[in-house]
């Protein structure tokens, strides 16, 4: 029996799998260049919600990143977000960031902060 295709974000986060129908590669942050401005978190649509803060910087979960590109180009002031066709799965110890209390796409207080970032 074939596996179900991961659906909307909560299901994708629970399945920890990237939908096969996403043909664009996910993005990756060059963390040594990142200035932690949070613009990429704010730019990523909440329905995808792929960028997280962690100790030592920001990270994109490839399984949640459709490769839409909204976080790249002029969004990132130092242009340190690139396509990652050879992506590796998100390490298991990071997954609690998604859908947990610090999830920037579900926590209302963080959403307010992100709205301010968007208005820059
Ligand atoms: S490419 Fe799109 S889905 Fe991926 S992190 Fe950037 S804004 Fe989010
Ligand atoms: S937009 Fe660029 S510089 Fe700002 S937090 Fe994201 S990756 Fe870092």
TrEMBL record:
Q: Which PROSITE patterns match?
A: 4FE4S_FER_1, 4FE4S_FER_2
Record keyword Ubl conjugation present: no
Domain (4Fe-4S ferredoxin-type) spans 25-54, 56-86
Report the leader peptide range: none
Per UniProt, the ranges with Basic and acidic residues bias are 14-23
User: Which residue windows are coiled coil?
Assistant: none
The entry's keywords: 4Fe-4S, Iron, Iron-sulfur, Metal-binding
Q: What is this protein called?
A: 4Fe-4S dicluster-binding protein
Q: Which organism is it from?
A: Streptomyces asiaticus subsp. ignotus
């Amino acid at each position: 029996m074939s596996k179900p295709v991961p659906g909307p974000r909560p299901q994708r986060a629970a399945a920890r799998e990237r939908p096969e129908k996403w043909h664009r590669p996910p993005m990756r942050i060059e963390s040594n260049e990142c200035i932690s401005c949070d613009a990429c978190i704010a730019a990523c649509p909440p329905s995808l919600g792929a960028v997280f803060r962690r100790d030592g910087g920001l990270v994109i979960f490839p399984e949640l990143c459709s490769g839409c590109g909204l976080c790249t180009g002029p969004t990132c002031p130092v242009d340190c977000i690139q396509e990652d066709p050879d992506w590796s799965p998100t390490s298991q110890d990071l997954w609690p960031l998604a859908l947990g209390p610090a999830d920037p796409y579900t926590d209302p207080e963080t959403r307010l902060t992100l709205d301010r970032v968007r208005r820059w």
